[in-house]
Amino acid sequence: MAIFIDKKTRLIVQGITGRDGSFHAEQMKKYGTNVVGGVTPGKGGSKVAGIPVFNTVAEAVAKTGANTSVIYVPPPFAADSILEAVDNGIKTVVCITEGVPANDMMKVYHYVKHRGVRLIGPNCPGLISPELSKVGIIPGNICEKGHIGVVSRSGTLTYEVIFALTLAKMGQSTCIGIGGDQVIGTNFIDCLEAFENDRSTKGVVMIGEIGGSDEEEAAKFFKKKMTKPVVAFIAGRTAPPGKRMGHAGAIISGSSGTAADKVEALNKVGIPVATSPLDIPTLMVEKLKMKKTKTTKAAPAKKSLKKAAAKKTTAKAASKKSKTSKKTAARPSIKSKKR
Amino acid sequence: MKIHEYQAKELFAQAGIPVPAGRAATSVDEAVAIAEEIIPPVMVKAQVHVGGRGKAGGVKYAENTEAAKIWAQSILGMDLKGLTVKKILVTKAVEITSESYIGIILDRATKSPVIMVSASGGVDIEEVAAKTPEKIHKLTVNPRTGLQPYQARELAFKLFRDIGLVRQVADIISKLYDVFWKVDASLVEINPLITTPINQVIAIDAKVNIDDNGLFRQKDVAAMRDLDAENTSEVEAREAGLSFIKLDGNIGCIVNGAGLAMATMDLVKHYGGDPANFLDIGGSSNPEKVLTAMRIIMRDPNVKAILINIFGGITRCDDVAKGIAGAFEELHPSIPVVVRLTGTNEAAGRKILAGYKLPTAPTLDEVVKKAISLAGLKEEEV
User: Fold this and answer.
1) Which one of A289, B256, B366, B380 has the fewest CB atoms closer than 10 angstroms to its CB?
2) Which ipTM value was assigned to this complex?
3) Which residue range forms the structural domain that includes residue B253?
4) For residue B102, what is the nearest residue in chain A, using CA coordinates?
């Protein structure tokens, strides 16, 4: 199990013949993602890394049965590409493109919601469910299959955290970069909810940054709806006061969006915030331990029996998993590469 | 991107929003000529990118041409919150019977434009919002269907009861909404929108911020950028496709990704250093970007060490390494350059840099600590 992408993902790459599109199409294919096609108008009939290229998304979907799309086209064409994917029945659209005008995205966002499509990004690194599927640009070799969900507004900072988790032997269920723009398709709450409902996820790492109030909203959601532990990091604690957006900025947000505000909101609901990204694994270990002791204490007798039984099975599953992860450690991972 | 009041008023005038007659001047003679042409009384207004110009003495009323000349002399060249005034707007003064506020901004939470109006416009609008939020009326517009005439009317009725005034204001709100979309604005604001004794409604101030991502299709607006109003290094960085903000510290930072850049800066501070800048080389970095980044940072005499932290994804470590190598060939840095390259094509990147024997570290925390300690060593040597 994982969220948003898995072995059933049949991916097309929009902008597959460009510099980034071709490079990452090949990377995704090598990782094991089922890349069934690519789209570049005028390049239909050609191939990139053995992947067939089509002129339109309509044609690509008809010929390949794709259900997911990843977009690498330049910013002026990004909104159009998202709509092309949505109108042709693609259910999950991941837009990597950086620099898409916010006005384009406002219109696209509301249309996509209306069509019930999952849009991730734009201006994001995409997502990866280790050993199942990778859609986007997150380096596969820093990930390891496991039980930690990662959701982040950042790109490279996410890699830093994933890598720290992997080194600490805490594999990931799905890692997702939701993007740093003002208008993004999927927010923290969408991901927290999906991780809460995902059986393979035991804890979630949330990486936020200054600006907006998404972290504060996520804190509220956590308090109301989540049973799984969440550990956070907020970038920009030392950032100078940003360039203010006139009076309206202060009026609309109602809060300053500073790191201090976000840390306070998260701590208040019981989400610890790490000082360095490298401290995240330790915090997660502590939280997972705390959760176990808490549930055994709090649960009434009957339920605790059931839970104990459930725990045994999960423990079995975990030991099975650790065996498989040992196996996977034998294949070249970033650790062996680095040393 | 910010534009000046006089430029925002040009956009408003093109859209049919009533603004007082006037033009920008860069010299006293020019200012006097404009004052004579539009017939005093006039307002003389400093054109700089700071708020609270009036309270800081950058906005003055001139009864006649002589007064306009005196104010132009005193405002041109004055220092306004750290910025030198190089342009002034000379505009027709109007009699005011009421001051309202209209603003449109992109709201992250609803992913929609939000229109805000208040009958308590003027210089203290932020205080009004903080202390009496009930005096600010907000409307979220569905960006797919756009602003409807009834919505503009509803908002206008929050400001006035007189149907003549309501019609004028509703028309202005609709036109302002059109400006917001037409120029890819992230903010448009009229504060104050005034009424005159003969019931005219006029925008006597104007503020427009443009979404940088929309500039590629806004050639006319992009040309309004006032390079004089910006830090030269920041201009150079932007032209090279870098995000750069100058700070006062001693550790120069070159990082890919805004989040990682901020996290790196946070750790520099945490371990006892002080970041000299925020610099994000962005994705798809070409070697030229890294070279420009090094050039900009090395120009800062406070910088005692440069910390390069790259976690490759779409950015390829070999591209960055080529840029670093180029910087060494061309700029011969005399301060320590500490490099961490991880991710896409990292082995190739390391190979390129092998000959330069640069100090390096495997993790984020360690590379930050190393840069700080090397910066300190350098200080002791001097």
Assistant:
1) B380
2) 0.88
3) 231-381
4) A248
